[in-house]
Amino acid sequence: MAKTASCFKIRKSDGEKTLAFTNKLGLTDKELYIQRTEDSLCIPLARQPRKDELEMLRLQVPSFELTSQEFSEKAQREITLADALAGELPPHLLASLPRALDVVGDIAILEVPAELETHKKTLGEAILKTHRNVHTVLAKAGAVSGTYRVRDLEFLAGENKTQTLHKEYGCTYYVDVAKAYFSPRLSTEHMRVASLVQSGEVVVDLFAGVGPFAVPIAKRQVDVKVYAVDINPDAVELLKCNIRLNRVDDRVVPVLGDARNIVNEKLSGAVDRVIMNLPETASEFIDVACKALKPAGGVVHFYGFIRHPQTVQDLAEEFRVAVEKEGRKVVATQYAKTVRETAPYEWQAVLDAQVK
Fold this sequence. Notes:
By secondary structure, the protein is α/β, with parallel strands linked by helices. The chain has eleven helices and 17 strands. It has a seven-stranded mixed sheet with strand order 13-12-11-14-15-17-16, sandwiched between helices. Strands 2-3-1-4 form a four-stranded antiparallel sheet, with helices on one face. Strand 2 (35-36) and strand 3 (40-44) form a beta hairpin. Helix 9 (259-267) runs parallel beside helix 10 (286-292). The longest helix is centred in the last third of the chain and has 14 residues, at 312-325. The relative contact order is 0.07.
C-alpha cells in the first residue's frame, strides 16, 4: 500500500540528525517507510511542521526541502495482550498474563491466574481488542468433571453465549462449550487419526463428543462406518447436527449411551479400530475396546494422562498388561507420544496399539 505524505527531503549525510530532530518533536510518521535514493533521503511526516520548528531544523540542516511524495506503508504490528493492558494493570501483573487460551469458533476460553482474579473483566476486554476473531471471552471456573465431561465457565466480555461454529481441517462443528467437551488443541490429533483409517474399516469412537474424530474420518473415506458413541445427550444432539452439516450421514452412526453397554449390546467383535479419547478414565474401558475389536484384532487409539516421573513408555506398559488380562495381545505400539501439556508436570499422551 502507498500513501502520499509531506516529508523532509535531505542529503544522506544529514539523515541521522534530521531523524533525531523529527523523532524528538513527534514529526516522524512511523507507519511509513523512509524513502532512499542514491544521494538523498525523504523522511515522512505525521503532521505539518510549524514555522518555528522549520526554523529550528534550518539551523541544523540548511539544505533540507519540505515537499510531498508517495511512501510505502509498513505492515501493522499486531497489538499484544501486554500492549493492550499496559495502561490498565500495574506493571508487576503483566508478567502473570495467560500465555495461551483456547479459541473455539469465536469464543476464547482462558484460565485466569489467581493474582489477576480482580482484573479478569479487564483481561476479557483486552482479549477482545487483541483477537479480532473473538467475540466472547469466558473463564474456566472449574475442572472438566462429571459423567458428561463439562466444566463451569464464567462470562467475562463480549457477547454472552456458549454456542459457536468451529472450523478445523475442512470440517465444521456446532459446539456448545458449556454442554459438551471440545478441545481445539487436539485438532492435529483429530486429523492424524483420520488419516490412518483405511477404506472399508469399521470404527468405534467410544467417547465421541460432538464428532471431532468421527467427522473427519468419514469426510476422508467414503467407504467407512463410524459408530460415534457418547453418554452425554447434549453432545449427541450436537453430533447429529455436525453429521448433517458435514454431509456424512451415510457413514457416521450417532449413538447415545454408555460405551460399555453399547459395545456389549451391538458392537462386540465388530470393529477394526477403536478410539478412546477419555484420558481421565479410558483405562477403565480397555476391556470394552478389546471386546469391540474383531476376532482377528485391530488398532486401538488410547489416550491417557502421565504425570512426572511417569513416561509414555510406562503408559504403554500399563496398557499392554491390561490388554493381556482380556485375552488379547499388543503386537506393536505403532505410535506413542505426548499430545499436549494439561498441567505442570502433566501431559495427555496417545498410544496407537495393534492388538490381536
